[in-house]
Amino acid sequence: MNGLRVVFAKEMIDNLRDRRTLLSSFSVSILGPIFFVGLMVFVMERALGESDSAAKFAVVGAEYAPQLMQYLEQQNTEITTVQADDPRELVTRGEHELVLVINPDYAERYQQGNMNTLILVHDSSELSSGRRNLSQLRSYINRYGRTVGQLRLWLRGLDPSLSAPITTQELDVASPAARALTILASLPYFMVLVIFMGGFYLAIDTTAGEREHGSLEPLLIQPITRAHLVLGKVAATSVFGLLSLMVFLISLYLAVPFVPFERVGMALEISIGQLTQILLLSVPLIVFAAALLTVVASFAKSYKEAQTYLTIVILVPTLPLILAQLMSLETSLKIMAVPSLSQATLMSDIIKGDGFEWTLVLVSMLTTVAYASALAWLAVVLYRRERILG
Amino acid sequence: MIEVDGLVKHYGPVEAVRGISFEAADGKITALLGPNGAGKSTTLRILSTVAAPDQGRACIAHIDVLEDPMSVRRQIGVLPHNSGLYQRLTGVENIRYFGRLQNLAPQHLETRIDQLVDQLDMHDFCHRRTAGYSQGQKVKVALARALVHDPQHIMLDEPTNGLDVMATRALRDIILGLKQAGKCVLFSSHIMQEVDALCDNVVVIGAGEVKFDGAIGALRDHAGTQDLEDAFVQMAGLGAAS
Predict the structure, then answer these.
(1) Is the CB of B86 less than 8 angstroms away from the CB of A224?
(2) Distances (CA, A) of A140 to A68, A73, A126, A304, B131
(3) Residues of chain B contacting residue A18, judged by C-beta atoms under 8 Å apart
């Protein structure tokens, strides 16, 4: 055991002095939650804004259609009246996002009961709020047009519903809260990723890096069993994974209060208790990640090769998560046997405040520990071979 | 005491070592002399327990390297051909790491490190990280690391590679000091002058076989030339190729 402790202590000190390791291990952990909260705030503000903001547009030739203008002013609109020879320029020059053009012969045609065409000038390559303004204005005009049409039918003694055999009505159930929840659902994915990122460079430095620097051979000549040597390295990698997740959770804890949940009628509070549960639940996955990264990095002949391999490995734990989303899996006993998926599922249950079932947690932890042990054993076997020297 | 008897080692189809036998006595400096690729490094790897021979036996202090590698590892100190230091650790931390792996008691370890720092004259740089070290400084730290547990057997794999004249001289003195302390020193090299200046016995290896085993003087007589380089070329079987 002494050897294991010595190797562990050395790898910790060595890697805490490495700026590259620290950057890769902790940058995602610190910035992840901040980015996450920023995204939530953005989405919520947008969702809130859409429901009550006025349609903004400019009108050319407002004087030709006073009735229509009066109707539009009564709606939720913000109208600017402008004079322009070429209304298109108003949009291309960016002065207005949306311009309604009314022709001078509007009143005359209206009187005669002819069709009038109004022109809506906009730029569909522009994202932003222009598109929403457009659809809002279009629906106001359509409604006005329909009303006028119905009146004309009435006057001729016809039933207005004759001209409208089918109508539609939209009902958008996506509340701001629901949108926020979609983002919240990606949180477990981030946590799993952070665990793997935490041990990424350590796994390389302690294996392929050691070989590349020529320090592996003298190390193997020391009187320490290969098992202690490898487990010391896996332990150091695990601790970095654990630290990385802890930093992520702390950062999350500090960032979440900045999300205006109360404005969308949601109460989401992430307590220290929940975070501790997530941390404990993740310990087997952290060891699993460290062992997996170590095994794969041991196959690489150089630092660069190991980087390439591990970048692919980091994608592996995300696959079950994506599959689960596609198949919309429910928390079940079967899922608990899949490392990363089981933790992600339980994490999201904990975040939602649903609590968790002890049996499921136990199954998740035990199966993941079993996989982690098998991988650690494989790493030891690899280091017992002569070929590890390359 | 290092004893090697009939070592054979293949790497795939390549026969790196084909039946090498020799002995290296305590209190003597023995050279393994041979051109690149002759099998010197493979032999040293087998002796340092990180490679297993396909045939033959290698013993250190009468312990078979295959039977009890752990005991052998406590008996040997190895200077690898590239120093293999940890760049983010200081010189002293590098030495201390190996001392701990050798399971030395902390107090004893610190005394031993101070002693080595004195002996190898490392005061100026041993508390700096090794990233910026010169070649000579690296070799000194690597040597101190190999000697930290005061092993009876010391194996040096081409130790003077990349060293300047002064560093080579300093290293030579250190190696002679080890001999006077009664250590068994095994020294691999492809440089004749190096071997001539230091060694008591020389084992010439060529193409995986022992071509000569005896005193330096005897090597000259055997080859029938006073020029050591000629003797070496002739012994290692390089004459035909060149």
Answers:
(1) no
(2) 10, 10, 22, 61, 72
(3) 88
